[in-house]
Design brief:
Helix content is 73%, strand content 3%. It is mainly α.
Length: 154
């Protein structure tokens, strides 16, 4: 299996994990929902459906495969820390995008710092899950490549 495909699968699992964290936040209003931040960033404030679609698409089809390509080049030793480095980098790029292209009111005054911290935490969780699942897929492939009785195991 290619690194991109492993990254895609890891991106699915990591996106689901972060989405499960975000669901209670949407109902309990701890912080501005991530999907609302994304929708505001592209000029559609309040349109959570668009925010969810972009969140799912970018987590699975952009960040997952990109991590698969970059993972061997990331500077840390464990897959989870590689995932954190990668996801925090994505968070920094997102914050720059919000500041450069988004509405200055993207983060409401009452939840500005809390929302930014929540986004950082959820990105770190995304990275931990992404790195862990990716590493498990790599290890599984290595175990499967063991030669048994002259033929490759399946």
């Amino acid at each position: 299996m290619s690194r991109v495909k492993k990254g895609l699968i890891a991106g699915v699992v990591a996106t689901i994990a972060v989405s499960l964290l975000e669901i209670p936040n949407m109902f309990l209003n701890w912080f501005d929902p991530f999907q609302g931040v994304i929708a505001s960033m592209i000029g559609m404030p309040g349109n959570l459906a668009v925010g969810w679609a972009i969140h799912v698409f970018s987590g699975i089809f952009i960040l997952g495969p990109l991590f698969g390509v970059l993972c061997p080049r990331l500077p840390t030793d464990t897959p989870e820390t590689k995932g954190i480095v990668f996801a925090v980098g994505a968070w920094v790029l997102m914050m720059l995008g919000v500041m450069m292209f988004g509405d200055y009111r993207t983060f409401t005054a009452g939840s500005g710092f809390g929302t930014i911290a929540w986004l950082l935490i959820t990105h770190a969780v995304f990275g931990i899950v992404l790195g862990n699942v990716y590493a498990r897929l790599v290890a599984r492939e290595k175990r499967g490549a063991t030669v048994i009785g002259g033929a490759h195991a399946h």
